[in-house]
């Protein structure tokens, strides 16, 4: 009994190391994205088998991206972040590499299966697999090649863009059958993608003694463009007004603006005082606020209970965020 008790702290420490490597609080933001895309198209949880498969796909691909991010950043983290799981030796580099690519492969495989386990779908069964493969390609491109270039934030935005499209890949609003997506789908996914491009720009120098204010402001502008795209997409949508459950021309943009005031306030505080603590706090709030934006979109087009379900993802996000870093 004493031996088991002695092993418990070590086991807990190892588990915490993996949760940090996975950036586990952020995984729920990926779930919110794919769920929003699914509810936008279907308005309910059916086909449930397809929804669960897409959620699992998103979780594995997102987590793979977090693991491979640290794999490719290993040499830098040894110098700048030596306490993180890989440079500290809590998890070996080889094991992390195997884990990252294994989850990436598993995610693509599940994405390919999603269209075949959802018999109610009228769309091409292979479409979800293609979107999953595009998402995985963006993950690799960002982690291995583009992260430290000017294209890095756009690659990260593309990951979120395809994650939303992944949720939309099993059906089409109005029952239409086509190989591509409705233009409205691209507007919604593009709004989320642009928002994340802005967050990534904002976070590029978060660990430095003082982030450049111009870079931070550019990130805020891109985030605002993303939110504005979500606010006004109904006006340019091909869907009839009765598709929306909230009056989309005035009430919806105002509601979305009010929901993003806290994001802007936090970001402007970081611009005023661009210390690592302020910038990292702003980035964390921006990432977590993605769940609120997803829930708002669900409320616009589906039953309020589904929006509450998406919003409830904030609970594990905040609880786990107390022990595990998000950036």
**Oligomer status:** single chain
Number of structurally distinct domains? 1
- The CATH first-level class comes to Mainly Alpha
Q: Which stretches of 5+ consecutive residues score pLDDT under 50? A: 1-7, 173-177
Q: What count of helical segments does DSSP give?
A: 14
Using the 3D structure, state the CATH architecture: Orthogonal Bundle
Largest sheet properties: none
Please compute the radius of gyration using only Cα atoms: 20 Å
Mean pLDDT: 86
SSE string, helices as H and strands as E = HHHHHHHHHHHHHH
Indicate the structural class: mainly alpha
CATH topology category name: Tetracycline Repressor, domain 2
Could you give the count of β-strands? Answer: 0
Tell me what you see in this structure:
- This protein has one domain: Tetracycline Repressor, domain 2 (Orthogonal Bundle).
- It is built from 14 helices and no strands.
- Helix 2 runs antiparallel to helix 13.
- The chain starts with a helix and ends in a 6-residue tail after the last helix.
